[in-house]
Amino acid sequence: MRQLFYTLLAVIASALPAVAQPASTPIVNTEYTRANGQKVLLGHCSPSMMQGGIYREWYDRSYDGYTIDSGLAKQFAPLLDGKVIEVFAGSWCGDTRREIPRLMKLLNSSNFDTTQLKLIFVDNSRDLYKQSPQHEEAGKAIHRIPTIIVYEDGKELNRIVETPVNSLEQDLLDILSGKPYVSNYYAITYWQQQDDVNEKLSAERLAELATAIKHVSKNAGELNSYSYALAAQGQLTEAANVLELNTLLYPADPVSYLSLSKLYRQAGEVKLAQKNLQKVLALQPDNSEAAELLEQL
């Protein structure tokens, strides 16, 4: 029954128009050194940036250590023709360090035209959370890294989020052949398909969305993480909607209430901030951060 539900969702998603376009920004190959001395890649980069310097060790380890499923790769290789692949990655991210060298090995073995590969490195700092300095992520709901988006004729076919559902080869074959495919964190994809989520949602509308999303939301961290990305981009109303939804899905999770209180405090909604802090303390009486914030209000 659950598999049937996922299949129906995938069919619905494939019928919806995709408005995001692959990146058209120039390759900048930016390496940034943080105040603590850590070097990271940022913005639109060529794959060669991962193959040298401090990045080469993890790139070579994942690339050389991966064994391609040649049977599946042979099936999807001809389907890559005319496609654009956009990758949002983080050189600081363990999942990126594992999955993207493997993806490169697959694409190289399939003779994919790498001029049609858009490799975007995002930051994980507070001010640029899950964002690129060139903001290629805008409007694309990038909340987990890596995110691999496949386009055809400028329209998104589907995406692999953070890790493959089955394997890189199988997931790409499913996407390229038009089979039903539901990525990880599909609750975010469903949310993004709604037209009204950037406006303040009523309790009734949030309850409706909670009913729809509860079958595909895996844990509280899924939507919490997305709310952080939205807030970092200045989309505070939508971020608050996401967290309000999460409190309906996971009423025993104090993190959503705490994050909501901070958003409402920032917006000057003192009573709503206090209400959510009180919920945190009801769930976690020893939460010193919530107690301190409540005292300040």
Question: What does this protein structure show overall?
Answer:
The protein is 46% helix and 12% strand. With 297 residues, the chain is α+β, with helices and mostly antiparallel strands. The protein folds into two domains: 2-184, 3-Layer(aba) Sandwich (Glutaredoxin), CATH 3.40.30; 197-296, Tetratricopeptide repeat domain (Serine Threonine Protein Phosphatase 5, Tetratricopeptide repeat). Strands 1-2-4-3-5-6 form a six-stranded mixed sheet, covered by helices on one side. Strand 1 and strand 2 form a beta hairpin. The longest helix has 16 residues, at 94-109. The model is unreliable at 4-18 (pLDDT under 50).
CATH architecture descriptor of the largest domain: 3-Layer(aba) Sandwich
Share of helix among residues? 40-55%
Q: What is the β-strand count?
A: 6
- Largest sheet report: 6 strands, mixed
Distance between the termini: 48 Å
CATH class of the largest domain: Alpha Beta
Identify the strand order in the major beta sheet: 1-2-4-3-5-6
Number of helices: 12
Q: What's the pLDDT, averaged over the residues? A: 91
Query: What structural class do helix, strand and pairing data support?
Result: alpha+beta
Kindly report the name of the CATH homologous superfamily of the largest domain: Glutaredoxin
Strand percentage lies at 5-15%
**What's the order of the H and E elements?**
HEEHHEHEEEHHHHHHHH
Tally the structural domains: 2
What's the Cα radius of gyration?
20 Å
